[in-house]
Amino acid sequence: MLAIDVISTIFLAAGSLIMITGTVGLLKFPDFYTRMHATGKCDTLGQILIIMGCMIYEGFTFITIKLLLVSAFYLLAGPASTHALMKAAYVTGLPVWKKGDKRM
Amino acid sequence: MILPFLAVGIIIACTILVCSYRAIYGPGTFNRIVAANVIGTKAIVLLIVVGYIIERPHFIDIALMYAVIAFIGTIIIAKYAERGELCSR
Amino acid sequence: MEMTEMKEDHRTFSIALTFCIMFIFWVLLSAWTVYLPEPYDLSKVSRGILAALIVTFLTYEIFVPGKGEKVLLKTRRFIPYVGWELWQIYLATVDVAKRVFGILEVDPQIIEFDTTLRSDFALVTFANSITLTPGTITIDVEPERGRYIVHAIAKGPAESLTVDQTMQKKVGYVFMEE
């Protein structure tokens, strides 16, 4: 029982660390497109890790399957919404930051 | 074993607070949409963690519904920002 | 898409498969927490069957458009690809974290390249894979020529798509469109 607690705590800690990294990237990166890089990737992995920690803590019940469904749905939907936002910004002509420009 | 979940919940709530800086001040429409999208993702995880803190795992149903609604909302806002209209004939 | 000209046996197959998946989904999502803890009762199960039937007749044309070719082989090749993709997500997050904390540089550029992929599912899988692998995000896809417009965060990730082409080969192998 203790081992399960420790393992799930490690997963939860790693997930929240990655979430913090994504948030710092959202604030620090210079323009919209690079901010999408930070959020799109860090949030996906952070969410997978935290939900996996919950799954390990739960054991094998029907709630575990629901958690897996939430995670799998976000794994499909996250890249799609990232792509929709990128395309909308690109089509409307939001300028792309090049190295040496000032922050946008 | 509530303590780790409590810590993770507090950390995610703090990151949501920090993200709302981008949602309020962020230059232009798209930075605000990104911040809203990120807050949606973090809210899904926060709902699941809160379900474990108060020991009521049925919060996962709400999290699942919230994931669907946040996804549809982001797609609709992106389409609206791209075309300037929602329904074209 | 010739949705209206679907053949009769295809339509039956499509309705049956969609109904089975929807009913299993209902059992997994709500039956085991809401309906079935009490003693067995036909009215409770009939609610699920009714809900599954409504969703089936609304969505079967989109959900199962027709009998695919070699679905089992593609599924068997797809599962190891998902494992590889999870490893790539981990690498991508480490890469972004290094750029956030200033260890690697940020030098964005937009690149375009053509692929040999044509079917809808292969195009979507490859677009999602680009978004989840290190340093690149899909902006736009032109399905006729298989052309992708990609935003890369630095020069290294961009070259891994245009020069190495590991991922194109993997997706092409999974969907047999090399």
Write a concise synopsis of the structure shown.
Chain A has 104 residues and is mainly α. Chain A has helices spanning 2-28, 32-58, 62-91. The longest helix of chain A has 30 residues, at 62-91.
What would you say this structure looks like, in words?
The complex is a heterotrimer of chains A (104), B (89) and C (178). By secondary structure, chain A is mainly alpha-helical. Chain A is 81% helix and 0% strand. Chain A has three helices and no strands. Chain A is elongated and about 55 Å long. The N and C termini of chain A lie far apart (50 Å). Chain B has helices at residues 3-25, 28-53, 59-83. Chain B is mainly α and 89 residues long. Chain B is built from three helices and no strands. The radius of gyration of chain B is 16 Å and the shape is flat. Chain B has one domain. Chain C is mainly alpha-helical. Chain C has two domains: 8-63, no CATH class; 71-175, no CATH class. Chain C is 63% helix and 11% strand. Chain C contains six helices and three strands. Chain C has a three-stranded antiparallel β-sheet. In chain C, β2 and β3 form a beta hairpin. In chain C, α1 packs across α2, α3 runs antiparallel to α6 (166-175) and α4 packs antiparallel against α6 (166-175). The longest helix of chain C has 30 residues, at 71-100. Chains in contact: A-B, A-C, B-C. At the A-B interface, α1, α2 and α3 of A face α1, α2 and α3 of B.
Spell out the key features of this protein.
heterotrimer, A: 104 residues, mainly alpha, C: 178 residues, 2 domains, 3-stranded antiparallel β-sheet, elongated
